[in-house]
Design a protein that fits this description.
heterodimer; A: six-stranded mixed barrel; 11 helices; about 15% strand; B: about 240 residues; six-stranded mixed β-sheet; binds adenosine-5'-triphosphate; binds magnesium ion
Chain lengths: ~375, ~240
């Protein structure tokens, strides 16, 4: 009977494609919205994941998330260094500054000033130039995406067609010269500003006087140091909060989750996707079973066991579920692969297909269960009732 | 001297009662119906609407439980079996022809006719092969791969007859098999039932309102108000009416 069950399903082609598209659309809506949500969220802490070197991120206790800059006193680095269990500690400047382009355009950018000596917390990937080039005078490293977009040279100094910013080009920050020595790849920020890396001392020169301060302190633990103890000591001695990268990521993530409307927006879309599935596919499947009830009844009269009949409904439901889900995930993946990452934050983690699959399973199980219940309740004697 | 032939009894029902309870009202559908159906005969069950014909054959076919009385169908009281065992018993023992043919529109004729065999565990290929033979027998040879939706009512009922007979049941139960068909077609379908259904050892019970087919029966059982009123032979019937 399995083949007959499938022929019944595929044979009712209008309804079959309806269910298929309903489930696929549901899957698409759920997984695509979830992937964009995860993508956007991971941009809020992209800098942390881009920067693996520090064991501890030390910030002002009132700072709520990564970009919520609460500058520290300049003595903070020294005080952290003096704590037992700290192997090294370096300052980090991170803030928004205005960059002037040769053609007069002004562009707010995220400036990251990393420790001059160690160059810890540099960009994750260098595409052109080397990190150590930052030691050259006026050196800055610009992220590749910005070099093509915000920093595109519309009137290149050498003349000719507009072209991307490249090594050797000169920008201006706070009326100071900044020479591009490298192009890097960095995770896009939530607000999508260009990212510029430079040294800490140069960054503080670029910044207006009132903002020439340490944004946070990055530190490494000595071998064998008790991380929890060190975090406690930092709090006691400096009044600052220390977090591991993971904890800081989570703190940032939780802030965005709880304090912004973003999760509700995406959550609404995801729930909507679920209900589209229920309304379209679930409903259609139930109608499909209802339409076939007389045949199930006839088969029941002829001597089909409950097991066989329920098996048929189950096979029909699971077939549309698998096909609809597969189609939906395929379309989502194609979408994710074709839309450029810089246009749309899209990040498909392994949990997302599971969530979408869960939704599809719930929709199909529920409608199949109602259908099965109708089949079970069929009175075989009713087949003689025209 | 013993009689040369003692027709075996396929169905023996006595004092069968059926009461439908719906809400506070009880409908007495059968009030002590008695019947014997012999193997090899074609028996027609006739009577006014609501007299309990469908209820009676449903009980005989093991589709419905009776509230009182005795019943033996091919030596078995279907009601004594568990639901599962009764389902399996129906599959082996009873073939059904319904007023609404109940052919699955998305399956081919062969597949529709093969359903009882497949339910019995035969593989699809052999079952469809066997179904083809019987479709040929009911006059639909060469159309095994068509869809039932393209067939006329009479042709659809032929497929249903093929389906009912494909696994050689001992009893064939037909509830108004011709009433969805026009007169001539109905007569042809009934002739087919009489022809292919009649086999030594098989009993055929046909419920019908259609007096143009009565002459095809061996015996006519007239029911009234939940009881068997009279048993006639077509000849006797014709005599009383003409
Ligand atoms: N499921 C049911 N619930 C309640 N009453 C029923 C049910 N089925 C049948 N009846 C009643 O039982 C009586 C006998 O019904 P049945 O269908 O057996 O008659 P019938 O002789 O087959 O009639 P018809 O010629 O119209 O098909 C009728 O009064 C009918 O209304
Ligand atoms: Mg009836």
């Amino acid at each position: 009977m399995p083949i007959f069950a499938l022929k019944m399903l595929f044979g009712d082609s209008a309804r079959f494609y309806g269910m298929l598209l309903g489930l696929a659309f549901s899957t698409l809506l759920i997984s695509q919205q979830a992937a964009i949500f995860v993508g956007l969220m991971s941009r809020t802490f992209g800098f942390i994941t881009d920067t693996p070197q520090p064991d501890l991120w030390i910030i002002d206790p009132s700072q709520r998330f990564l970009d919520d800059n609460k500058p520290l006193r300049s003595t903070a680095v020294q005080r952290v260094r003096s704590i037992e269990g700290i192997e090294w500690a370096v300052p980090l400047f991170k803030g928004l500054l205005v960059v002037n382009l040769p053609d007069g355009k002004r562009q707010v950018s995220q400036i990251i000033g990393i420790d001059d000596a160690s160059l810890i917390a540099g960009p994750p990937f260098m595409l052109e130039g080397a990190l150590t080039d930052l030691r050259k005078p006026d050196a800055i490293i610009v992220d590749e995406r910005a070099s093509r977009r915000e920093f595109k040279m519309n009137k290149p100094p050498e003349g000719g067609e507009p072209r991307p910013l490249r090594v050797g080009d000169i920008l201006e920050l706070n009326e100071l010269r900044a020479e591009v020595v490298g192009i890097c790849k960095a995770t896009q920020t939530f607000q999508s500003q260009p990212v510029i890396y430079t040294t800490y001392s140069r960054a503080t020169q670029y910044a207006p006087p009132e903002r020439r301060m340490v944004t946070m302190v990055l530190a490494g633990l000595s071998k064998g140091a008790d991380q929890a103890q060190v975090i406690k000591t930092i709090a006691e001695r400096t009044g600052l909060s220390a977090f591991t990268g993971e904890q800081f990521t989570e703190k940032t993530y939780v802030y965005w989750m709880l304090e912004t409307g973003i999760p509700i927006n995406f959550g609404t879309a995801i729930v909507l996707g679920f209900f589209v599935g229920v309304a379209v596919a679930g409903q259609m499947f139930y109608n499909f079973v209802l339409d076939n009830l007389k045949y199930f009844g006839a088969m029941k009269a002829m001597g089909a066991s409950r097991k066989i009949l329920l098996g048929m409904v189950f096979l029909q439901a699971s077939t549309v579920a698998v096909l609809g889900f597969g189609l939906g995930i395929a379309v989502t993946s194609i979408f994710g692969l074709t839309v450029p990452n810089e246009k749309l934050a899209f990040r498909m983690t392994w949990q997302i297909p599971l969530i979408a699959a869960g939704a599809v399973i719930i929709i199909c199980t529920a409608s199949a269960a109602i259908g099965m219940w109708r089949v079970l309740r069929l009175d075989p004697a009713d087949v003689f009732k025209g | 001297m013993t009689p040369i032939t003692t027709p075996e009894i396929a169905v023996r029902a006595s004092g069968v009662e059926k009461i439908y309870v719906s809400g506070d009202t009880n409908v007495v559908a059968l009030r002590g119906a008695d019947l014997e159906v012999r193997c090899g005969e074609i028996l027609m069950l006739v009577g006014p609407s609501g007299c309990g014909k469908t209820s009676f054959i449903s009980i005989i076919a093991g589709l419905l439980k009776r509230d009182a009385g005795q019943l033996e169908v091919m030596g078995q009281d279907p009601q004594a079996l568990s639901t599962e065992a009764r389902t399996a018993w129906r599959l082996r023992t009873v073939g059904f022809v319904f007023q609404q043919f109940n052919l699955i529109p998305t399956l081919t004729l062969a597949e529709n006719a093969a359903i009882p065999l497949i339910l019995q565990g035969m593989d699809r290929r052999s079952a469809c092969e066997k179904a083809r033979e019987i479709l040929n027998y009911v006059g639909l040879g060469g159309r095994e791969q068509s869809s039932p939706v393209r067939l006329s009512g009479g042709q659809q009922q032929r497929v249903a007859i093929a389906r009912a007979l494909v696994n050689s049941p001992k009893i064939l139960v037909c509830d108004e098999p011709t009433s969805a068909l026009d007169g001539a077609t109905g007569l042809h379908v009934m002739e087919l039932i009489a022809q292919v259904g009649r086999m030594p050892g098989r009993a055929v019970i046909v419920v019908s309102h259609d007096d143009r087919i009565y002459h095809l029966a061996d015996r006519i059982v007239r029911m009234d108000d939940g009881r068997v009123d009279r048993i006639e032979t077509p000849a006797a019937r014709r005599n009383t009416h003409v």
